């Protein structure tokens, strides 16, 4: 594989890729300065350690300028029936004219799956884009664990 073609293969560059779509949203609080809401997403997770189904709940505090702070809780069920859970925080930039916003987040993950114990207590970081019109998100990230 040449250096140029390796850049096209994101599976080589990232430990995890998540593609999800919002399934529900709930406004928690609203004022002239902020909007706090929860969204639940469902999608697919793929990566070098496991692949499967992704679910999350993201609590967002949207500011007047369109940026937001995020609190994330997620659950992954691998194709082998193993579960991985995680929590974290992040930021979302103000969306552009097409409704696309940049997202970055980081946190910690846990699992009781024997095959994935090296991930237990590890850190994760992701960055990607959310389409606020289609309510979809794609993030790519990496894991930092003592076992890797």
* Strand and helix order: HHEEEEEEEE
Q: In percent, how much strand structure appears in the residues?
A: over 45%
Number of strands: 8
CATH class: Mainly Beta
Radius of gyration: 16 Å
Number of helices: 2
The average pLDDT score comes to: 92
Percent in helix: under 10%
In the CATH hierarchy, the third-tier topology is known as Porin
Principal-axis shape: elongated
Which CATH architecture?
A: Beta Barrel
- Stretches with pLDDT under 50, minimum 5 residues: 1-11
Quaternary organisation of the protein chains: single chain
Largest sheet: 8 strands, antiparallel, barrel
Q: Distance N terminus to C terminus?
A: 24 Å
Lateral arrangement of strands in the main beta sheet: 1-2-3-4-5-6-7-8
Structural class: mainly beta
Number of domains: 1
Structural summary, described in words:
There is one protein chain. It is built from two helices and eight strands. The chain is mainly beta. It has one domain (15-144): Porin, CATH 2.40.160.20. The chain has an eight-stranded antiparallel β-barrel. A hairpin with a 4-residue loop joins strand 7 (123-131) and strand 8 (136-144).
